[in-house]
Design goal:
The protein is built from 24 helices and 20 strands. Helix 13 packs antiparallel against helix 16, helix 17 packs across helix 18 and helix 17 packs across helix 24. The protein starts with 8 loop residues before the first helix and ends with a strand.
Length: about 600
């Protein structure tokens, strides 16, 4: 009897084990690109990716409790390291929940790669279970998105995603992978190739650099103005920026996103600029004859009323994204390029600094504005003022080289005004999108990246509830984050605007049923304590920072304290509110 020749089943099994599928290829390529951490949450359409993670020891997966938090944690990781933050979620509501985080990342130029599972290719467009148009809903909040339909295209798609996320003005990208493509075998292993980051734009023309250098050398009332682009450009760019300020004795201000680009203790630093910036920073911008903007966008929270913005100033704008230059404010010299490279080229063309005395009249005028001491407050003996809390946090963090994240609202502005941010990548906050719920997961991401650093989240009672479930993430992954709650019982900034602009009609801005935060934090496994009186504050903060694990400090602060100084919407820099009924105005020539 003749028998048929059959394929050896053991050989077939061995070949199947060595062949890589789309999910494994994606992870192999991420490892080749230097990725070692992913923040995510599994689901049906992403299970092949999670199965591949089980066999990939080179990648640490951080399980969050909500997909929005995964993006914010990846942002905290990216912003404190300068590396790519990576997110892995499932289809439908999984990727839908990332949109607020992706909006935050694109608003603040944070490099994030979001990888979403998708239903199988054959049922896309049929309203299959947990299907959604991931490309359509993410397009407005990403630099680029793509859906590979063949596993052999995955490796190059990942490399392209990494190039785009990190190149030029950084930002989020999204790869959407159908489940069948994740499982499809690839023809060959993904090459172990590190992607080439897109080159920065070429240096601006020499004539533009020379024109900028001449304006700086001739200015009588200059202001140096830096933003988050400086942080993205790296420590060397921040050092060049600081050296320019010191060498030329330039009054210098930073945006909310730029804090840390120059030490806040530097005598040339005028404080933060903009809506809740200092009197001296805002009035210096108004009266300047030259503004040198480096890595900032002239956004509305900085400019105030456009018709009154720096009416006497020539303007130089350095930005990696040419589309930002001249978009809001016309400028005299446009310098498109990487902040570090442009600052290096510009400072090389500057003559030897003129004697510091040439700016003495300008500094004397600034000194007069500084004498208003616009951040001063009188501490209370009976109630913790929010400013009092921030100054106490500042004192306790001295010498720790701590990383501080915030949520969004009054506490965010008080933290920006009163904390000392001495180095780049130590300050994490949501600037462009103003995303409540950002602070805690961003702090966890930063702590994952820097396990030996002190990481503190300053939050508010409304913001912290947006992602309170991430208390569990901190415990599971042994991240000793410290959360300091500025608890006033209100959506504080909403309440302040309702008081000032809407006849004090406090429509739905009071949190009438706040939980017992101490009991809640302890239920999650955190250390916790409540502070009700100023005399407890220093000792409680010391206990919080000394605790081995995560610690939640609930500080009850004055309920209806307003955040000042304030340049109200629709006003100019020369019109600054110092208190509810007190203004500082100076429009003299």
């Amino acid at each position: 009897m003749k028998t048929e020749s059959l394929e050896n089943p053991l050989t077939s099994a061995a070949e199947a084990c060595t062949a890589r599928n789309g999910a494994e290829t994606l992870l192999d390529t991420l490892v080749a690109c230097g990725v070692d951490t992913i923040f995510g949450y599994p689901g049906g359409a992403a299970l092949p990716l999670y199965d591949a993670l089980h066999g990939q020891p080179a990648i640490r997966h951080v399980l969050v409790r909500h997909e929005q938090a995964a993006v914010h944690a990846a942002e905290g990781y990216a912003r404190t390291t300068g590396r790519l933050g990576v997110v892995l979620v499932t289809s439908g509501p999984g990727v839908g929940n990332t949109i607020s985080g992706l909006l935050d990342a694109i608003s603040d130029s944070v490099p994030v790669l979001c990888i979403s599972g998708q239903v199988a290719s054959g049922v896309i467009g049929t309203q299959a279970f947990q299907e959604c148009d991931a490309l359509g809903i993410s397009r407005p909040v990403t630099k680029w998105n793509h859906q590979p339909r063949d596993a052999n295209d995955i490796a190059e798609a990942v490399r392209e995603a990494v190039r785009i996320a990190l190149g030029g003005r950084p930002g989020p990208v999204l790869l959407d992978l159908p489940k069948d493509v994740q499982l499809q075998r690839v023809d060959a292993a993904a090459p172990a190739e590190v992607p080439v980051v897109s080159p920065a734009p070429a240096l601006p023309p020499q004539e533009s650099l020379h024109a900028a250098a001449m304006l700086i050398a001739q200015a009588q009332r200059p202001v140096l103005y830096g933003g988050g682009g400086l942080i993205n450009a790296g420590e060397t760019a921040c050092e060049r920026f600081t050296a320019l300020a010191r060498d030329w004795h330039l009054p210098t201000t930073l945006t909310l996103m730029g804090l840390g680009a120059m030490p806040t203790s530097d005598p040339n630093f005028l404080g933060m600029l903009g809506m809740h910036g200092t009197v001296e920073a805002n009035l210096a911008m108004h009266h300047a004859d030259l503004i040198v903007c480096v890595g900032a966008r002239f956004d509305d929270r900085i400019t105030g009323r456009l018709s009154d913005f720096a009416p006497r100033a020539r303007k130089i704008h350095i930005d990696i994204h040419p589309g930002n230059i001249g978009k809001v404010i016309p400028v005299d010299v446009a310098l498109a390029g990487d902040c570090d490279a442009v600052l290096e080229a510009l400072t090389a063309l500057l003559p030897a600094p003129l004697p510091a005395e040439r700016l003495d009249p300008w500094w004397a005028r600034i000194g007069h504005w500084r004498s208003a001491d616009c951040l001063a407050f009188t501490p209370s003996d009976t109630t913790v003022l929010p400013q009092q809390l921030m100054r106490a946090v500042r004192t306790q963090l001295e010498g720790r080289d701590a990383i501080v994240s915030t949520d969004v609202g009054q506490h965010q502005m008080w933290a920006a005004q009163h904390l000392a941010i001495e180095r780049p990548r130590r300050w994490l906050t949501s600037g462009g999108a103003g995303t409540m719920g950002y602070g805690l997961p961003a702090a966890i991401g930063a702590q994952i990246a820097h396990p030996d650093k002190t990481v503190v989240c300053v939050s508010g009672d409304a913001s912290v509830l947006m992602n309170i479930q991430e208390l569990s993430t901190a415990v599971q992954h042994a991240t000793p984050v410290k959360l300091v709650l500025c608890n006033n019982g209100y959506m504080g900034m909403v309440r302040q605007w309702q008081q000032l602009n809407h006849g004090n009609r406090l429509s739905h801005s009071w949190n009438a049923a706040l939980p017992d935060f101490v009991a809640l934090a302890r239920a999650f496994g955190w250390g916790a304590r409540r502070v009700d009186h100023p005399r407890e504050l220093d000792e409680a903060l010391a206990e919080c920072l000394a605790h081995d694990g995560p610690f939640f400090l609930d500080v009850r602060v004055a309920a209806q304290e307003n955040c000042y100084p304030m340049m109200p919407a629709g006003r100019g820099h020369h019109e600054v509110m110092l208190a509810d009924d007190r203004w500082y105005c100076d429009d003299s020539a």
